[in-house]
């Protein structure tokens, strides 16, 4: 099904666990008329208090902001009535098995047993059957939107390739250097003569590398000098130490660095490959592009569907 709606559905199910009951002593008036249904001020205030209770950001609103939030809640209640009418029109049903599966999902995500879930609901003034019916309504809404919107949000291969072309910068691989090295160790306590000998071997090896011999050939050639080395893998700019970075930063593919002197060893680097950041192949990113494009189309289709519902309905807001 449709990723964004799945998230909305899951979040809604979780929020149902923390719903609070509004005070009953409230004079009820008509807040809005939606087709043949009436939304009372009592219903609105209850839904508003639920929203405040489950939204930490709503706890410290001033009066003007609370009024805006109350209107948003009313707008949601109106949408619920429109959805209810459309469900009846299409004769959609939700089985007991569907409801039970949703309850099990809520239990797993909240790490609750059935008894713990029932106890949590009782503490918040909601019996289990009411909770089941609330879930049933949410599943119905989910099925309806999936039915009405999904068919309008199919993605073609042409759309995927167009998105890839228009957002090519988003699919660039990071720049990298693929390096290999030779390391000539300097024994602890080595005298000047020994260091000069090792330096001579390193300079010779550097020249042989420039002439086209491979790292592996030189490792064999200088085995008696305990020379180490081989493939170092890929590095992004800034990952090497400053000394090594200076030695390789200007090398192009195939070039060899100067001998780099360190206290305990001499190093030679070869730039096996250098990439400035090329575009990833379309096939390697097509799945993620499809998710992005489909979500965009689904959101647009949902807005159009919601707008169509409202335009074809009778809505009279009285507050």
Helix-strand pattern: HEEHHHHHHEHHEHEEHE
| Adjacency order of strands in the biggest sheet | 4-3-6-5
How many DSSP helices?
11
Instruction: Report the helical percentage.
Output: 40-55%
Instruction: Report Rg.
Output: 34 Å
Return the average pLDDT rounded to an integer.
Answer: 87
User: What share of the residues does DSSP label as strand, in percent?
Assistant: 5-15%
The outline comes out as elongated
Q: What oligomerization state is this entry in? A: single chain
- Report how far apart the termini are: 38 Å
Main beta sheet strand tally, sense and closure: 4 strands, antiparallel
Helix and strand composition category: alpha+beta
Number of DSSP strands? Answer: 7
Uncertain residue segments = 1-25
Q: What this model shows, in words?
A:
This protein is an alpha+beta fold. It has eleven helices and seven strands. It has helices at 3-15, 41-54, 63-90, 96-110, 114-123, 128-149, 157-166, 192-210, 215-221, 242-248, 282-311; strands at residues 30-34, 37-40, 176-185, 228-235, 260-262, 265-275, 315-317. A four-stranded antiparallel beta sheet has the order 4-3-6-5.
Feature tags:
11 helices, alpha+beta, elongated, three-stranded antiparallel β-sheet, disordered N terminus
List the helices and strands and how they pair.
Elements: H1 3-15, E1 30-34, E2 37-40, H2 41-54, H3 63-90, H4 96-110, H5 114-123, H6 128-149, H7 157-166, E3 176-185, H8 192-210, H9 215-221, E4 228-235, H10 242-248, E5 260-262, E6 265-275, H11 282-311, E7 315-317
Antiparallel strand pairs: 1-2, 1-7, 3-4, 3-6, 5-6
Helix pairs in contact: 1-6, 2-3, 3-6, 4-6, 7-11
